[in-house]
Amino acid sequence: DRQTLVAVLxxxxxxNLRESEEILRREARLLGDDLGAAALSPASAGLLVxxxxxxxxxxxxxxxxxxxxxxxxxxxxxxxxxxSPGVAAVAAVxxxxxxxxxxxxxxxPGRGGARVPGFPRGAGTRGSVSGAVVVEDQPDVSAVLxxxxxxxxxxxxxxxxxxxxxxxxxxLDCHRAELSQLFYPLFVHMxxxxxxxxxxxxxxxxxERFHGDQxxxxxxxxxxxxxxxxxxxxxxxxxxxxxxxxxxxLRISRDxxxxxxxHLQEKQNNQIWNIVQEHLYIDIFDGMPRSKQQIxxxxxxxxxxxxxEANKAKVFFGLLKEPEFDVPLDDEDEEGENEExxxxxxxxxxxxxxxxxxxxxxNAPPQNRIPLPELKDSDKLDxxxxxKEAARRVRLGPECLPSICFYTFxxxxxxxxxxxxxxxxxxxxxxxxxxxxxxxSVTPKKLRSVKTAADLSLIDKESDDVxxxxxxxxxxxxxxxxxxxxxxxxxxxxxxxxxxxxSCSEDGTVRLWSLQTFTCLVGYKGHNYPxxxxxxxxxxxxxxxGGHDRVARLWATDHYQPxxxxxxHLADVTCTRFHPNSNYIATGSADRTIRLWDVLNGNxxxxxxxxxxxxxxxxxxxxxxxxxxxxxxxxxLLWDIGHGLMVGELKGHTDTVYALRFSRDGEILASxxxxxxxRLWDAVKAFxxxxxxxxxxxxxxxxxxxxxxxxxxGTYMTKSTPVVHLHFxxxxxxxxxxxxxxx
Length: 743
Hints:
Blueprint: H1 2-14, H2 18-28, E1 47-49, E2 68-73, E3 76-81, E4 89-93, E5 131-133, H3 141-146, H4 157-170, H5 173-179, H6 183-196, H7 200-210, H8 219-226, H9 231-235, H10 238-245, E6 248-253, H11 254-267, H12 270-279, E7 280-285, H13 292-298, H14 329-338, H15 342-353, H16 355-359, H17 377-391, E8 404-409, E9 416-421, E10 427-432, E11 437-441, H18 453-456, H19 466-469, E12 479-482, E13 489-494, E14 500-505, E15 509-514, E16 519-525, E17 531-536, E18 542-547, E19 551-556, E20 564-567, E21 573-578, E22 584-589, E23 593-598, E24 604-609, E25 615-620, E26 626-631, E27 636-640, E28 645-650, E29 657-662, E30 668-673, E31 677-682, H20 683-687, H21 694-699, E32 712-717, E33 725-728, E34 734-739
Parallel strand pairs: 6-7, 8-34
Antiparallel strand pairs: 1-5, 2-3, 3-4, 9-10, 10-11, 11-12, 13-14, 14-15, 15-16, 17-18, 18-19, 19-20, 21-22, 22-23, 23-24, 25-26, 26-27, 27-28, 29-30, 30-31, 31-32, 33-34
WD repeats: 409-450, 482-517, 524-555, 566-607, 608-641, 650-682
GO molecular function: RNA polymerase II general transcription initiation factor activity
Main location: nucleus
């Protein structure tokens, strides 16, 4: 990177290390005059301005004439003329004169590039770079905040902001919607700048005058902001540091951007232009500006929209091929005795579920992309059972809705905080605020522990029913209580083979319990704060956890340390989900975004924005192509994983959506909410004939149907029970669970 080179060369020159400087320059093929302007600015100024070779790259946004940029020299402001290469004239101006300021923005965006030009990385057309920053933006508190050095007259901030507001409100309708996105990030940065420079009364008046103009979905953030009234408050505030260090992303069409730029240059509105340069990332696209409705669907997260680049990586969303194994004959003979004609039905079904249909999936990851555990004999038996159940599965659809069986936890004074149900629907687990984990059997078969070691040694290991004999009948009961956590249990997950159970808690640990002995096997310590969710991989062995420390961790049951740490969210990771092929993990966060992570390398391959509140539920469709997400805003959003696009919005719930689940064949999406209802949506209709052409993908011009009511197949009220978990049995009966609340 050229700027870094110039900075290093300048450092070597200052330290009189001429020899090293020469060697580095020869290696990098940098000529003497490239450092001409660099040497101008002493160490106290954090900026180097090189001379631009194009007319464009020298175009400056400060000062009267083009071809002038500002450089701070020891507190005073110097104007550097950059009209001809290799020559730079410096005129020192005392601070406060001429309206120039301590930041300098140089250059216009490259023809093809979409970055906002200027301060951070320097920009010039056609690749000519003219600026460099010596100190990179480290999220170290003092460094972060020091960027809010005094700029401009505090009394003029309101004037600047209202001037821009007037301009945007008077612009054409097609541009107004796009440019209105600027209001919120500018408002926050201008307010923080005033607070940092200790203009408390101006900050207060600025906040009171303009906070009412912001979109309703930023109310919670503004409440936090209003409590920051002194410079000291900013030091420990994580939200503020996030806002400061992560660039707020706006997606704007080129026409709207040019309009804004022209306005700010004509008005000499340096204050606002500096913030645009410094703190915003404007993702410019060619084409029609987006409508208010299209923008509203996509914005609302803590850091604006996702950059389009973030959703370009290839994702293998297809399913892995099912392993091939023979169905044992004796099983089928027994079936034949019970019900006539069953084996005939069974045979073709195996072929369907087996290898033939799965071979063709071109979007599936390579079978060995990540190491998956070997199938044990018991797993194969379970798969056979699963196929038999699938043969009797009810085909759901608008004409054939599932029955719903609701498990209500009565008198749950301990406070029910998490629920999970095994894949074969034989056990249900509850995590409680009194730090207990309680497991119930929902079939007539009671829960039994394995016998003690002394008793086990007496058993004939060769007998056919050895698996029955090792269980201790004396311990049989419908309910087992597991003690071990020292705080509320926020997440629970059964392993696919039903031998293990995971629980995660406010105490910062994830615990693995044996369902053979009903004891704790391991406590995984990695999170230092509450862990909000945990989930087993659909293949077992791996599991994921997410918590208040803003990261998700991937674990394997036989490792004490996490295998991967997925960092990138700006707030708590509130829910986690494995993709059906186990190669990807989705995480939902209180920063109002959903991220998709690649298990193989830990990269973030998708960022979805659009929710207006923290995310609390995630569900992948059975074919792996789509993701449904639910949040405190009561909306359920549908995403196409391959194209990285929002493809649907289901409105109807009036409170947080805590549970989402697709039926076994993916025809129906069930959603459960704090508003005490379960709603069923037509998933087939929601995903058919989607517009996923290249243009939509490139610009995010999504066209959501006006009315999601025609996708709603049914709403089912409970008396007073918020729905915290949903589960489709192998035959497509819908199970729901929640704790009765008396108020």
